[in-house]
Amino acid sequence: MTSTLRARAGELDAADPLAGFREEFLLDAAPGVSAYLDGNSLGRPLKRTLESVQTFLREEWGGRLIQGWTEGTDVTAGTDVTAGIAGTGGWMDWPTDLGDRIGRAALGAAPGQTVVADSTTVLFYKLVRAALAAARAQGRDEVVCDTDNFPTDRFVLEGIAAETGSTLRWVETDPAAGITPEQVAAALGPRTALATFSHVAYRSGHLADAAAITALAHEAGALVLWDLSHSVGSVDLALDAWGVDLAVGCTYKYLNGGPGAPAFAYLATRHQGDHPGALRQPVQGWMGHADPFAMGSGYQPDPSVRQLISGTPPVVAMVPVRAGVEQLERAGIGAVRAKSVQLTAFALELADELLAPHGVTVATPRDPARRGGHVTLRREDFREVNAALWSRGVVPDFRAPDGIRIGLAPLSTSFTEILDGILALQEIVEVAR
Ligand SMILES: *Cc1c(COP(=O)(O)O)cnc(C)c1O
Question: Which CATH class name applies to 2-31+332-432?
Answer without folding.
Answer: alpha beta
